Amino acid sequence: MKILPLALGVAVIGALLPAQPVVAADANAIDAERAARWKTVAEYIFGDRKIEPTETLIKLDAPERAPDAALMPVTLTMPEKHAIRSVYLVIDDNPSPFAAHVTFGPAADPGALQLRVRVDSYTNVHAVAETKDGRLFGTVAFVKASGGCSAPVEASDEEAMKGMGEMRMKFTGGAAPGKPVEATLMIRHPNFNGMQMNQLTRNYTPARYIDKLSVSHGDSKIFDLEADISLSTNPVITFSFVPDGNGPVKVVATDTKNGRWEQSFDTPLTTN
Amino acid sequence: MSKLPSKPASIAPVTRRQALIGSFCLCCTPTSAGAARLALTEVGPDIFVRTGVHEEATLANGGGIANVAAIVGRDGVLVTDAGGSLADGEWLRAEIRKRTDKPIRYLLITHVHPDHAFGAAAFAGDQPTIIGHHALPAALAARGEFYRKHLAQILGPDRAGPVVYPTEAVKDGMEIDLGGRVIRLMAHGKAHTDCDLSMLDVATGLLFPADLLFVDRVPSVDGSLRGWLSEAEKLKQLGASRAVPGHGPAIVDFAPAMADLTRYLAVLRDETRAAIAANLSIADAGRTIAQTERSRWALFDDYNARNVVAAYRELEWE
Q1: Distance of alpha carbon B78 from alpha carbon A61, whole angstroms
Q2: What is the pLDDT of residue B259?
Q3: Cβ contact, residue pair B309, A238, below 8 Å
Q4: Interface test with A, best of B309, B316, B318 (most A CBs within 10 A)
Q5: Most buried of the four, A140, A213, B43, B228, by CB within 10 Å?
Q6: Residue A270's pLDDT band (boundaries 50, 70, 90)?
Q7: CATH fold of the domain at A6-271
């Protein structure tokens, strides 16, 4: 996985980001800048792989104006779910635009995925689906939100780190073998991204965020997630899987400071 | 409507209907920077209030969207808050000077939000004791510059004003004597924000809950939903019958106004808990929670969805 280095990301933003609020008269120039930004970002993440536009393979639902820039819900919908191998979420103007890459396993129902992200400034958000034959298809939404990356997590770092690694999982609806079940995974973690200032010491809290999640059902993978600085504090991920009655859902999470947490959850099938 | 200064010292209660009609009229009335300046109303003996408009800060309203007040005692004046921008604070100072020559000794910054904090610089020449909650400096440090830039984009850098820090911190409580007039300050736990300060004018029993009491304008939850409900109980125990809210009319009957506020907060809390239990996505929840309150508050659509996010964040790990 190529991740746009933080420092470079900031430099590129400094060069390209127009002053906000965006003035209508400059709309064309701004569109051109956003297109150029996406070209740079896409090259970092996807190399020279072509990204074809799509209105059917992946859909992106994000609020036009996010009420809270530190916690913006994003829903990805993949109607032709059996064709999908993985999905990427990219927030173009975040200091590190790569937000998440989710690779689905055999136990997944890759029809939909929800994440919560931080948004630093008015930006395009790209969702890119990788099909099983290795092609990339992308869609884009523009969101108005700002300040989400540097918004304080809690009054103190100690308070923010309370219960770090604790997980919960909620299942929606009853389950029958072979029928998809929606699950919401919650993980307690401050997900410090290096941009939050400690309100007491006036220093920036060092980055420490969940960078990998592995979720499986019995012996079968549901998904692997790779993430960078853009997932919100206390990450919440909603996904679907197809239970087969073989054991619990197991989650392994790691963070960038070698934290590792593991927890298993009984599925509705195993409890009913 | 007590926003209009036709009857100075008018303390007639307004019905919700009148209040809402009044606020909506203000919202649709084109106002120049000068005309947006409603005059000070004397709501009690030597207590002057200017009501804010139920809008976001704009060039036209000059950031004057929160209620501001001045209390005059024998020896000096206390100002709370100073206004939503340097320009707003300068207007307030000029209006105070039309009424009294006494020194402006104390300036309260009731919390970190820009509509309450940025007028402070207008009083620099008076060298007042600037009083804030003990958590205010940290909150200003974390957000002040972000707020300043945003305000400067709206008003221009000259009219926005710098971030001003308190010179005196209130840990739990504090008393100020303006000369025969004692003012009692209370520092609150996390509620509207994490640095809310309220004030009681002991002689008149008039309560200044600042933004712990919104009237007509939808409250914004930026501290703790549960905390706000419990701080509201503490304010009720003070037994005040009248209050100057942080937003809304210049003066209101405290109990019914606070009952309206806590009703909204309780609906937000209860419906958010139910949504979390039903595993409703936060995006869907933002469109459905507390909609029964929609017609009761100005700017509801601008703030309710954000309040829902705040409520989720606070309640989903209960």
Answers
A1: 50
A2: 98
A3: no
A4: B309
A5: B228
A6: low
A7: Immunoglobulin-like (2.60.40)
- The pTM (predicted TM-score) of the whole model is 0.85
CA B81 to mean position of chain CA atoms: 8
Contact B32, B50 (CB under 8 A): no
For residue B289 the two structure tokens come to 């929670």
Q: Inter-chain contact A200–B138, Cβ cutoff 8 Å?
A: yes
pLDDT tens by residue, A180-199: 999 999 999 999 988 887 76
Report the distance separating Cα A36 and Cα A92, nearest Å. 10
- How distant is the alpha carbon of residue B238 from its chain centre? 19
3-state secondary structure of A107: coil
Tell whether ipTM is more than 0.95.
Answer: no
Domain boundaries, chain B: 16-253
pLDDT top residue among B37 and A150:
A150
Any A CB within 8 A of B309 CB: yes
Lowest mean pLDDT, pick from B66-70, B118-122, B280-284: B280-284
pLDDT of residue A27: 78
- Rounded Cα distance between B215 and B38, Å, is 18
- B299 has which bridge partners? none
Residue B306 in contact with partner chain A when CB distance is under 8 A: yes
State residue B246's pLDDT score: 98
Q: Identify which of B142, B306, B309 has the shortest CB distance to residue A199.
A: B142
Is the CB of residue B141 less than 8 Å away from at least one CB of chain A?
Answer: yes
User: Of A63, A152, A236, which is closest to B142 when you measure between CB atoms?
Assistant: A152
Q: Are B141 and A202 in contact (CB < 8 Å)?
A: yes
The CATH number of B16-253 is 3.60.15.10
